[in-house]
Specification:
This protein has 542 residues and is an alpha+beta fold. It is built from 20 helices and 15 strands.
């Protein structure tokens, strides 16, 4: 009786299939798509297609062909990836990658690009926009100017929608709509005109009532509608006039000339402004690349570098103090409740994490009121008369105390988990060797705690370094010195940056972006050094 043996070829072939089936690998790994999965895929891809179509129209209208090409390529790639059975890992990686690019990479790159420009109030648009703004703002009514019957309207919501002037030509009765983009004629069938020429209704617009227009009177006064012969401005809420621009642009000298005084302002392409011979600059400028000027200003301009470096020192103190104090208190409580002699630990733990369970923004507002000089709980409870937020060091102590109360439950929780992971045999062994509780804690417990908690401490430091809520909702950066309303005693770099970008003194987005880059570099450097030290510690205690 002979036995048939399998040779090497048959062995290799059998290895390609699944055990007991002999099916090829591609067949074995194929999973049929369920009806639910198919519906979900169709819905999601349809949503992607809808978003792509919605985004394509503005790109086409603006002539952004590169952006349109990227949109088409991205959409095509998504459809290919999720309609093919291959590239399984990419299907899982792509969504996270897209969100990473959209919400991390792109904002960082945009901030970095803004830091090299003069973008801000007076420098938001192009040079042509600045010229139009200068000429429009200088419009004055002259003898013989045409006057129109005016109705103020809005596109959409009458309270927040963009304003539009609906004007009736007294000579022809034609109705036109005007905004900052210019004047355009409306079809007579689309408007309703009352006796006297006032427009009472127009398709696509909401005519404002007298009360609604009164609440937006400043916006109405500021609105200038460019026309072929000058510009249209309001004269009250029911009349408008076509005035003449006193200042005009001369392409020959690349300058703005005042027709009444003869004064000229020449374009300075490096600064993005029109500048007179005596150095006076017109308020309306344009956005230009200024290189590293914003970074240089942060380091050398006394008006910025002084507040910057002073705030930086306090920023380090705040981040270090907030992280260190919360860690020490949280660890101390965790050690106390970790003792086997402690009773009722579960109840204590529930009570101690209550601050962590409450909304931090609400608690910050509560603490702000508790520190009120006249009616605050702290002064009334202890019989004090401290103006907590009126003095530099008391305000700083107050925000650190608030951070301690808000932050220690987190450190308590993570320290409790780390303590429970340390074998009791280690501490018992030190006791057998004659070590005191303090020596046991310093030699065994604390190093092992730091190995486990060091990454969390680094993350906590980075968070507190940019903890805008802790400052903005309590002191708003104050108290402020009389000579510098932009920088207060409790300001962090992030709140100082916010005030530069959106403060009442005027927006300086370029400078604020440069400060943001410094913040990023500082936090990244500190984190990198800390992680390097952490790795060395892990090597010692691993």
């Amino acid at each position: 009786m002979s036995t048939k043996l399998s040779g090497p070829r048959s062995t290799r072939n059998s290895g390609r299939g699944s055990v007991g089936t002999g099916l090829p690998r591609t067949v074995r790994n194929h999973v049929p798509i369920t009806a639910t999965g198919l519906v979900v895929k169709v819905v999601l891809l349809g949503l992607v297609a809808g978003i792509a179509i919605w985004a394509a129209f503005p790109l086409v209208g603006a002539g952004k062909w590169v952006g349109l090409a990227l949109l088409v390529a991205t959409t095509t790639g998504l459809f290919y990836l999720y309609l093919t059975p291959r590239h399984i890992p990419a299907k899982y990686l792509l969504p996270g990658t897209v969100f990473l690019i959209a919400f991390q990479v792109f904002p960082v790159l945009y901030t970095a690009s803004t830091a090299f420009t003069n973008f801000g109030d007076g420098h938001r648009g192009s040079k042509d926009d600045a010229i139009v703004a200068i000429q429009s703002s200088s419009v004055q009514q002259v003898p013989g100017s045409t006057e129109y019957t005016l109705s103020v309207a809005s596109e959409g919501d009458p309270v927040t929608g963009p304003l539009v002037f609906l004007v009736t030509d007294p000579a022809t009765g034609a109705v036109s709509a005007g905004d900052a983009g210019g004047l355009r004629r409306l079809d007579a069938a689309d408007v309703t005109v009352a006796p006297g020429g006032r427009v009472t209704a127009a398709d696509g617009y909401t005519v404002l009532t007298f009360g609604q227009a009164s609440t937006r009177s400043q916006e109405i006064t500021d609105l200038v509608v460019p026309t072929a012969d000058g510009a249209l401005r309001s004269s009250g809420l029911s009349r408008a006039y076509e005035g003449r621009a006193i200042r005009a642009y001369d392409a020959g000298c690349d300058c703005i000339t005042d027709r009444e005084s003869g004064r000229t302002w020449t374009a300075d392409e490096k600064a993005g402004s029109f500048v007179a011979a005596d150095g006076e600059r017109l308020a309306q400028g344009w956005k230009v690349n200024v290189g590293g000027e914003n970074f240089s200003r942060v380091l050398t301009d006394p008006n910025i570098s002084g507040p910057f470096f002073g705030t930086l020192l306090w920023n380090f103190a705040f981040a270090t103090g907030s992280t260190g104090l919360t860690f020490l208190l949280g660890m101390a409580i965790a050690l106390a409740l970790h003792s086997p002699r402690m009773r009722g630990t579960n109840l204590y733990r529930v009570l101690l994490i209550l601050p962590y369970a409450m909304p931090s923004f609400a608690m910050l507002l509560v603490w702000r009121d508790m520190f009120n000089t006249d009616f605050g709980l702290i002064n009334n409870l202890f019989g004090l008369g401290v103006d907590w937020f009126g003095q530099d060091w008391s305000a700083r102590a107050a925000v650190l105390l608030v951070q301690l109360w808000l932050g220690y439950p987190y450190m308590f929780l993570v320290a409790t988990g780390a303590l429970q992971a340390i074998p009791r045999e280690l501490t018992e062994a030190t006791s057998v060797d004659g070590a005191s509780p303090w020596q046991s804690f310093r030699a065994v417990t604390l190093p092992l705690l730091l190995v486990a908690l060091a990454p969390l401490l680094i993350a906590s430091f980075a968070y507190n370094f940019n903890n805008i809520n802790a400052i903005w909702l309590t002191t708003e950066g104050g108290p402020f010195p009389a000579d510098n309303p932009r920088n207060g005693a409790t300001d962090l770099l992030i709140t100082y940056t916010y005030r530069l970008a959106f403060g009442a003194q005027g927006a300086e987005f370029g400078t604020a972006a440069a400060v943001s880059i410094f913040i990023f570099a500082i936090v990244a450097t500190v984190s990198a050094i800390s992680f390097r030290s952490t790795r060395k510690q892990e090597e010692v205690y691993s």
